[in-house]
Amino acid sequence: MTSIARFAVALCARFTVQFRHILRAQDFTQQILNKTRGLTSTFSYVFDTAGTLWARALQGLRASRLRLACSVALVIGISLCLPMGSASSGSIDAINPKTYIRLSMNHKQASCLLTLYGKESAFNPRAIGNLKGTYHVYGIPQLKNPLIYEKSPIEQVRYGIKYIHHRYNGDTCMALHHWKIWGWH
Predict the structure, then answer these.
(1) Distance CA 159, CA 18 (A)
(2) If you average pLDDT over every residue of the chain, what do you get?
(3) Torsion angle, CA of 42/48/53/55, rounded to 10 degrees?
(4) Residue 140: helix, strand or coil by DSSP?
C-alpha cells in the first residue's frame, strides 16, 4: 500500500512541476503579446495567431493534466481509506513472495523467476527436493544450504535472487533456460 502512495505522491510532484512549466510558458507568451501591441497589424496578427494556437494547445493540455490529477487524487484517497490489515506492521514478510518478485524486478525478469520457482518448489517455503541425490535442496529457490529452510519466504527469495545474480549475472531468464535444459540451475 505504501508503494502505491509513494507512486501517487511522485506522480503528483511530476504533475506539479510540469504544470508550473506550462504556466511559465503561458506567461512568457502573454509578455511577448503585450510587447508587440505597437507593431504593424501584420506582425501583430502573426503573434496573435501564435498566441491563440498556444492558448488552445494549453487548454487541451490543461484538461488532460486535470484528468491525471483527478485520477491521482482518487488513488490517494482510496489508498488512505482502505484498512491496512497485517501489512501495517511494516514487515516485508507480510508480502506474498510472488508479489515481492513482481515489485522488485522488471516484468520479463520477474516472469522468468516466477516460472522457475513455480516449477521447482511451487513457491512452497517448506519444499525439500533432490531426495534421492547426494544433496537435498530446500525452500522456494531450492538451494543446497539447509539453513535456507529456516528463513521466511521473502528471505528465501532474496537468497535465491542473490544466487542467480552471482551465477547468471542477475539474468533470471538465463537461470530458467538452464533449468529447462539440465533440470537444475
Answers:
(1) 41
(2) 76
(3) 170
(4) coil
Half-sphere exposure of 107 (CA within 13 A, CB side): 0
Q: Report the alpha-carbon distance of residue 68 to residue 74 in Å, rounded.
A: 10
**Domain coordinates in residue numbering, the chain:** 2-83, 93-182
What pLDDT, on the 0 to 100 scale, is given for residue 180?
93
The residue whose grid cell reads 516449477 is 119
- Give CA–CA dist 31/10, Å, rounded: 32
Is the model's pLDDT at 39 over the cut of 60? no
Helix and strand counts by DSSP (H, E) for the chain: 6, 2
Residues 159, 142 contacting (CB under 8 angstroms): no
27 band by pLDDT with thresholds 50, 70 and 90? low
d(CA 139, CA 147): 10
Q: Which amino acid is at 148?
A: I
Backbone angles phi, psi at 129, to 5 degrees: -120, 175
Q: Is the pLDDT of residue 157 over 60?
A: yes
pLDDT value, residue 94: 73
Amino acid identity of residue 28, one-letter, is F
**Amino acid identity for residue 38 in this structure:** G
By C-alpha distance, which of 185, 155, 159 is closest to 172? 185
